[in-house]
Design brief:
Elements: H1 11-25, E1 32-38, E2 46-49, E3 55-58, E4 61-64, H2 66-78, E5 81-88, H3 95-101
Antiparallel strand pairs: 1-2, 1-5, 3-4
Length: 108
C-alpha cells in the first residue's frame, strides 16, 4: 500500500482485511477493496470489499468494472466519505504489473 500520511487504519479493519484476503487466497483468486474515511477525518471507518457483481477474479487478475466503481463512489458520496486507499492481493509479487496496469487512486 502506498503511504497515506495522516490516515489511520484501526486494528479491526486490518483484521478484517487480513481474514478476507486469507479466505480468498485459499482458493487462489485475487481480491481487494477500498478504505473509506469521513471527509473531515483521518481515520478509516468503512472497509468496502469487492463483491461479485462487476468483479472478475482469476489467478493474476483482479478487475473492477466501471459500474462497480460507480456504485462504490456513489455510496461514498451519499455517506460523505472519501476513498484514499485501494488494496488488493496477489498470489506472488506483481508490483511492476500493478504500476503498468493497475488502478491508481490519488488524493485530490
Amino acid at each position: 500500500m502506498t503511504d497515506q500520511p495522516g490516515t489511520s487504519v484501526p486494528a479491526s479493519a486490518v483484521s478484517m482485511i487480513t481474514a478476507e484476503t486469507r479466505a480468498y487466497g485459499q482458493r487462489y483468486p485475487e481480491t481487494g477493496g477500498f478504505l473509506m474515511l469521513p471527509r473531515d477525518s483521518g481515520t478509516v471507518t468503512t472497509v468496502a470489499f469487492a463483491g461479485t457483481t462487476g468483479i472478475v477474479r482469476r489467478q493474476h487478475l483482479f478487475q473492477i468494472s466501471e459500474r462497480a466503481l460507480d456504485r462504490l463512489f456513489t455510496f461514498a458520496d451519499d455517506h460523505d466519505l472519501h476513498i484514499p486507499v485501494q488494496f488488493h492481493s496477489h498470489e506472488y509479487d506483481a508490483f511492476g504489473r500493478d504500476l503498468a496496469h493497475g488502478l491508481q487512486v490519488r488524493a485530490a
